[in-house]
Amino acid sequence: MLRNCRRVCVLPRLNIFVNSLDQRQKYSSKLTAAQNSMDKFDLPKRLQGSTPSVWNEYITLAMQYKPLNLGQGFPDDAAPEYVTSALADIARDENYLLHQYTRGNGHVRLVQALSKLYSGLIGRELNPLSDILITSGAYEALYSTILGHVDDGDEVIIIEPFFDCYEPMVKMANGVARFIPLKLREKDGPISSADWVLDDAELEKLFNEKTKMIILNTPHNPTGKVFHRNELERIAELCCKWNVLCVSDEVYEWLVFDGVEHVRICTLPGMWDRTITIGSAGKTFSVTGWKIGWAYGPHQLIRNLQMVHQNSVYTCPTPLQEGVARSFEVELARLGKPESYFLSLPRELQPKRDFMAEFLSEAGMRPTIPEGGYFMMADWSPLAHKVDLSAEPDKYRDYKFTKWMTKNMGLQGIPPSAFYSESNKHLGEDFVRYCFIKKQANLDKAAELLKQWK
């Protein structure tokens, strides 16, 4: 009887086991199918390894901790009155077409103004309809340039530290990024951005028959370096020797200090036919939210950008282009005069630059005095003994330090290792980047925060 009972009891258990095994197999098959589906919809191979940008991460951090934000590169004060008034006037303008589509490659009034400006600056007549492309910020100008010229396997030389979109854009074009870092010369006393230099032998070695492009940024973000004429002549010499395209990111072209000359590389011998120059209304008129940029150069180069632009962005907002055009017309009338915003803005920023350098030095950091732009790199490593970064899980020390400062000091900077390739990120770990195109009251507050901490 007991024996029969055991048999009866075992059979249901066996059925449960069989059913359970069957369910596990079905579940496993579903998981495999789901995984295969997710793999199919993963990032394309050319974008594998991409991560969220430092901006997304640090904007979120700023929203959470609400620090004094000297990290992001935008003015926190009013733009010139004539610039914002132009946009207000356009909103009320009786010409209703100012609120409709405009010419895809650039609003006619704007490209005409840019043609007049740059033809005078570079000593060469620019055709407004063929030599200039208006883009959705300098960001899209870079995108259209890289996607329009880089083919599978083409090599692109990128100078480090670099604006962090350069490398991903090269990957999108299936190009191969080759990196060369600016190196800080050892010296006693104050450091200038001119002390960040390229190794000539290392630069020459990068050029070869596969090199399609070099990306130049002057004035440079984040070091503030303004490439001097002799440095640009060396880059031009190598571009001509190896038949290489130069993409010159000159969005900070008007922000130069100490009488330093901003040389446009397209004006050097042999460089016009191999240079695309990029500019930004956001940086020029302190309206970064307008997102209007441009690229200019010979038509045989610009037409490649037009092909990318017409099949992605197609056309930029008409009212904003009209507003930028009217603003340039104001400046063209007073170009070179003291009241010109192109001269008054750097005149206003230089004392702020010097003030930031002073309070960072007093706090124990070692700042690089920029010759251009509105960023300042500072070596924070002398303060390493004063901070306990063990609670910050990030891989790189500059991320740990900037997050510690945000959370504990209420002062936010940007970690420069974000602007280096993976193999060279260690070169940025001892630094932090601050922005000084801020209200004086906010710079005073930053100085006070650091003074209290010291």
Task: Give a short overview.
The protein is α/β, with parallel strands linked by helices.
Tally of DSSP helical segments: 14
Low-confidence stretches: 1-8
Structural class: alpha/beta
> Would you report the number of β strands?
15
Question: Termini distance?
Answer: 88 Å
**Mean pLDDT figure:** 94
Proportion of residues in helical segments: 40-55%
Sheet with the most strands: spatial strand order: 2-11-10-9-8-3-4
Largest sheet composition: 7 strands, mixed
C-alpha-based Rg, rounded = 27 Å
N-to-C SSE series?
A: HHEHHEHEHEEEEHEHEEHEHHHEEHEEH
List keywords for this structure.
454 residues, alpha/beta, seven-stranded mixed beta sheet, four-stranded mixed beta sheet, disordered N terminus
How would you characterize this protein structure?
The structure is a single chain. This protein is α/β, with parallel strands linked by helices. The protein has 14 helices and 15 strands. It has helices spanning 2-40, 54-65, 81-92, 108-122, 137-149, 166-172, 200-206, 229-242, 281-285, 299-310, 318-333, 341-362, 397-408, 440-453, and strands at residues 68-69, 132-135, 155-160, 176-181, 183-184, 191-192, 196-197, 211-217, 245-249, 275-280, 293-296, 366-369, 375-379, 411-412, 431-435. A seven-stranded mixed beta sheet has the order 2-11-10-9-8-3-4, sandwiched between helices. Strands 6-12-13-15 form a four-stranded mixed beta sheet. It is globular, with a radius of gyration of 27 Å. The termini are far apart.
